Each structure stands twice: as C-alpha cells, then as structure tokens.
Protein 1
Amino acid sequence: MKILFWGTPRFAVPSLRALTDEGFEVVGVVTQPDRPAGRGRRLQPSPVKEAALEQGIPVLTPERPRGEEFLAGLRALEPELSVVVAYGHILKREVLGLPPMGSINVHASLLPELRGAAPINWAIARGYDETGVTIMRMVEAMDAGPILHQVREPILADETASELTLRLAELGAEALVEALTLLQAGGLQEVEQEHDRATFAPKIDRTTARIDWTRSAEELHRHIRAMDAVPGAWAELDGQQVKLFRPKLVEADEAGELVLTPPGGNGGPPPPEAPEPGQVLAADARRGLVVQTGSGPLRILEVQPPGKRRMEARDWILGRGVEAGRRFR
C-alpha cells in the first residue's frame, strides 16, 4: 500500500516510523514549512520533516495545501491512501479524495468527544478519567468522519498534557498499524459518529493558559497540568509573568496549618488573615510553594520565572524569587 503521510509535530513522528517499520511504502510526506524557533529565531524543520529526511522520504512543505501545482505534485507520487496525524491545516475535498482509498486520520480522543485542535489538553482540563485515540475516515467537516478503530486509555493522576501526549502518540501509532492491517484484510467496519454527542476542544493559547485563582484547587490542578508544557499556565507576580507547573493538591490536615499571620503589635499575636486567591501561603524549603485558590491551597512544584529556565519551585524560593504573603494575579 502506497501511503502519503501528513503531519507536523512530534506527536506524529511515532505514526510515521510505525508505517515504515511495518513495511508500508510511504511515498511522500507533507508537513508545514520550516519556522523560526529559539532565541536566535533560526528556521527549524518540523519534527516530521526531520524524521522523513532521515529515512529518505520525499518531503513537501506548502504554506497552504491547495492549488493545482500542489495537487499535481501529489498525483505524481501516486499514493493509494493519505494518513493524516496532526498536520495543522484543514484539507479540502479535492485533497482528501485524491488517493483512491481516500484519507484517514489519527485523532487523540474518543470521538465524537473532543473534536478539534487540542483534545489532549481539554481532556485533562475538563477532568476526564479516560481518553484514547480514534482512527477515522476524513470528511470535510472537522473530525466528523466515520470511525474505523478506537483504543481507550486512562488518564493517570497528576499526569500532564506533555506526558499524556507522549503516551497517546505511541498508542496512536499502534492503532494506526492495526487499522491499516484490518483495512487491507477487508475486516474493518466504518461506524458513523453519534454527532449529537460531539464535544469540542478548541486551540489553546496564552490567553487560555492564564490562571484564574478564584477557581477551585481541583480545577486549577487540572488546568495547570493541561497547559504543560506549551503554552504553560501562567500568572503575574509583581507585574511579571511566571509560568507554573507540576501542581499538587494539599492534604486536608496540612491545609489547616497554612495560614497567613500579620505582624504582631503590643496587644499580642494577631489573628490569622483570610488569604485572598493567588496569595502565597508558604514559600520555604520545607513546604515549598503553596498558593491559595478559590477553595483552598495548591502546591506548585516547578516554575519558570521570566527569562529563566524551568526549575524546581524550591530553587526559586532559595533564590528569593518569592515569599509568603505576596500575591499572584
């Protein structure tokens, strides 16, 4: 089977490698053009382009996957099937229907739930206990085609979007090979999605990633994990944006000890203050960084101050980056 592969990020690389490892003939790869990256803003190829070139596979990098010249280039490759994994553009009907066997997609959710650009992030943010991958027939509507194969996968406690992405990338590669093997053998049944059950997972950005400290500790525990590592959940501290990672819920017995005590006067010890959402309850070597939310405290294990690398919160505290009583906004 001659396959034209479409993909861009690291998530797609295991699927590309699985196809070649299993003996499928990948006649070409379509990926997004090189983009500036890093401090020097030098052009960098996509992870899929790098993987394709390592294997000597022809690579196409159109700014937009359309136009007669581009289509002629695809026809010259004579693909029998297109496999799309996180390519990054919506494909037109003439592109989807160009191979005789059409186009299939690896999507990181259990469709029809979480259609869209960021299913892994929103599965965590919305508190799902389970997700998975779907191999589907592509149609012009977004993630709405018939389901060919699905594999379920639990979401682990404290798991971040970065960690779940790695697991689902490998799971998606395995599911893709299984689906293609069944397809070749004529043992694959296409099942229409239940469209009235569809939910959506829109693209995330820095605005989405900002932390709203009035939300509950449980919600922010999910939100911060969901935004890891890009774009990274963030909040302002003294007018500077700080990214926060690796949240942990605080046990009830410890939460009762986390109070803010204002300076005492002549009348004896003052009563504890009621902390405001975003206020730092603890910033020391023993307890680490603990911040008040709308429902109680939340511990943060890693941070990235502006212009610095990602680091353990304890290192930031020892470097006097934060202290109890200050407030994230």
Protein 2
Amino acid sequence: MQAATPAGPSGDFDTGPPFVFGFGFKDGAASEMHWEDLAAREAGYDWVWLHLNMNNVETQRWVRARTDIPYAAREALLAGETRPRVSAVADGLMINLRGVNLNEGADPEDMVSIRVWMSARRIVSTRRRRLRAAMDIRDEILGGRKFAAPGLLVARLAGQLTQRMSPFVEQIDERIDDVEDEMLTGAGERVRARLAAARHEAVLFRRFIAPQREALARLAADDGPLFDPHTRIDLRETADQVTRLTEDIDAARERAMVLQDQLTDQRAEEMNRNMMVLSVVAAIFLPLGFLTGLFGINVGGMPGIDEPAAFWLVLGACAVTGFGLLVIFRIMKWL
C-alpha cells in the first residue's frame, strides 16, 4: 500500500499520494488494498473501504471516472467546502461529517471534514487534511477488528469523530471555569482576552457540531438496508452524544456571555466609583478654592494684611472646612 505523507505543520493540506489506505472485507476480515491493483482486486471482496487524498490530481481523476458512483456523490466527494449532512443518492448515502483538527500546530476548532459515499458494497471516503479518527479505525482493522458490513464501519467512524470532540469541549468549559475563578479572586482585568478567545472557539465549534447533530440523527433514522437494527442503536447513541456536546457548548457560550457582562459591569462600577471619588475631591476643593481665591485678591481693605497670624488663620479655616465636608460626605454615604 502506498502511504500518504502526513499533513504538514499547522494542519496544511496533505499533498501526498492519492491512496491514504484501503481495505477489502471478506466475511468481516480485512485485507489491505493497493492503489495499483485496486480495480483488479475490488471484485474479490464482499465490500471495500477506500480512503483517498482528494488533494491529489490522480484521486480526482479516479473519482470522476467512476461511473458506478452517482454523479452527485462524485461531486460531493470532491467538494471544497462542506457542512455536515446526510443525503440519499441512488442506492447509497452521501455523508459529510466533521472532526476536531488534531494535526500538529493546528487550531482544534478549525475542523477537518470527511466526505463518505456509502453503498452496500463500497465505502469511498475523501479528505483534505489528516483525520485522526480514520487513522484510529485503520489501526483497529490492522489489529484484527472485523467489520461485517459498511454500516458498522460508518457507525464506528461517527463514534470516533464524536469521541475526539469531547476533550475539546471539556477544555473550553475548563478555561471558562478558570476565568470565572480569577474573576472571583479579583483578577478580572487579566482575563478579558482569554474569555473572548474561549467564546470565539465555542462559536466556531458550534457552527459545525450543530448540523452534525442533525446529520447523525438523519443517519440513525435511515430505514434502508445499509444499517441493521443494532447499528442504528449505535448511531442513535452517537447522535445523543453529539446532542449533549452541543448542549455543553451552548452552556459554555452562555456562561462566557454572562461572565463578559459581569466584566463589563465591573468596569462600569469601577468607573462610577472613580468618578465619585473625583467628584467628592472636586466638591471639597471647590469652597477651599473660593476661600484662597478670595483672600488672594490684591485690593485695598483686605483683612489681616498687617496681621502676622492671618495666614495661619486662613489655613486653619481651610482645614476645618475640608474636614467638615469630609464628615458631611461620610454621613451622606458618598464616601
């Protein structure tokens, strides 16, 4: 099998060979398939799973040449931008799902898509960037796990995608917990950027996880021959997990919004308190300024001009006036 090179740093598109991996299944047991002998060996299995790198031109030519795959499915397999959805096409299903981007240096909320065409005898999946959930299933198959039908593998893939989302949602929730704890300890000024980043990640994550919930619910409700009753139960459980994740991310967003409002209220309260202090100081110095201005005029008849103690008397009057104003403001609870 010709292995694809992993995605580059920061989750760049994989420009490696067309064939990521492939397996042929006979009585549930899997055998690895090779790109070179794909056409010759595909007919010898009960069903096959081909996982392709859609960035490769050879992959695009191969998909477009497959007349046994409906035109709508071929176009969907090579689509650039996708949202999670499930559509019935001819005798199969076209499934678009998203997973957390766990490539080195990538942002997890920059979710990786996988496009899957599923029929009774074939699963063809394509991706642009490396998807850990698909690699997990490949490792399970190489470890001896059997899949008797395509529906079982698709259900497992959906489960792996959902399982890898859970830690990311928990991380967002924990970061918001940390922000709330710091706010309660009086460190609110240092957490504004972190809170905004957490809210941004939650918004981006929900953009795809919400339609994925609907897609998995649609997949679990499919009553066609591609899924047996037990597989539908697994799909319903996965859809319920995605629903809980959606509810958790919604709760995290709401908490972040409440904390943002609290930060705004704290800032407004601090500004009001500072303005009150400035107003009180101005109120204290207003009569003192009047006194000093009055006794500073240079006109005849000013009392105390020839009195050596007059300066100290005026200074004492200012001190008594200022202290009296402080007492009055304290009684009025302005301070």
Protein 3
Amino acid sequence: MLEFRRLTAGYGRQPVLRDLDLALSPGEITVIGGLNGCGKSTLLRTASGLLPPLGGQVLLEGAPLEELSPQQRAMRMAYLPQGRNVPELTALRMVLHGRFAYLSFPRQYRREDFDAARAALEWVGCSHLAQRGMASLSGGERQKVYIAMALAQDTGVILMDEPTTYLDIRARFEVMELARHLAGMGKTVVMVLHDLDLTLRYARRVILLDGGGVVADGAPADLCANGSVERVFGVAAARASLPWGEEYVFRPLSAP
C-alpha cells in the first residue's frame, strides 16, 4: 500500500502538485496520466524518496517514508526511473542489484541472491540473456531486465516511470503484460504512461493530473464515459469492436 496525505511536491520552493490525498492499492495497475508538465514524474520521484515533499506525507505500508532508512525503503519499494545510463554490466549482474538491500557486511552476494536473480530473469523470459552485456541488448530486452531487477528486489510496491518509452510496439505490449503479472502477484504497481491506448487497456485505475491536482480518478471506462479523457487530453475516446475484441479508439476533437 502506498498513500499520499495532503502531499505537496515540487522543486525548490515551487510546488507542482498540491494537497494530494491518494491511497494506491495492491493487486492492480494504477496509471498516473496527464499532459506534459502536470507532475506525473514529480509524484513518482517524491513517492520514491528521491524528492523530499514540500508538505504532507508519503506513507509506505503504513509507515511515514521519512522514518524509514534507505535500506528499509529498498526492501519495500522498487523504483524504475524513466531515463538511465546503460551500465557496463551483464544482465545477471544488473538484476543482482535488486538484492543489495538484503546484503549484510561485507556486501557479498550469497547463493540465495544468485538464485533470486536467475529466477527473476527466467520469470521475464530472459534467462538466455544472463551473460549478455546490458549495452548489447535491445530496448525491450533491457526494460525486461530492469523489471527482473525489481522482481528480485522482492518489494510490495513497484514504481515505473514511462517503462514503454522508445520501445517498439511488440516490446511495449510485453512490458505491460509483465506489469499485469506483477499486479497479479499482489504487488502495488504504479506507472506513469504517456500512451493513452496502453493506459486504458491495462490500468485498473487511472489518476489524471492537471493544474497541480487530481482532476479524475477511476476505472478507464468511467473516465471515457464521463468526459475526463476528453477534457484532459483533447481527444474523444470510444470502445470499438475489433476481430480480437473491444479496443479503445481516439479522435482529435479538432478533426473535421
């Protein structure tokens, strides 16, 4: 469980988000959406502890985030940022980073850590990449390795900031299916996504931000039906019957 109580977040003394009250539940994918600059990544950075709140609190499994040590946070919450440098590590070594919080001095990986890392790579379908360098992997393969790292970290909460950015269409679906499986394991999965189609397809709950606060919060179908998607994004959204089932389709409001 991840909670925000009257949370104000931003940079320096400039708030981007004000007085948010949210409780994010386990066992489902929650997507934070909105236009560029609305505070989506700011919210995730504050939730992860990388950005101190300007006011209010973040609670992680009922405990105020500021009262938890970095190790305690890492044992309860994994954070996958949007951009990162590609390390000169093999995929297995990258996944092992998820076990760091569980190591005691002198910080040497144990057999159980290697077992957890290998099991996580197998779970994301990347066992064959264990000895490959991260720089040699495709964007989709690399993102799966990062998800394996989060899985090996064995936390109840997983934050993902734009995990599908720059991926080809097949890789995007594969990453979102992995996120769905993580939620199915009872984890609280919170994602920032720009892709509205993926948001409406995979999210159980969508929280839309605008003007420093929450302007819509609910199931995808409800936000389409009540006009929230139209107001925030300026597009009309509807469900269409296709040969493989129903999908969301979009039309700019300014289209003739």
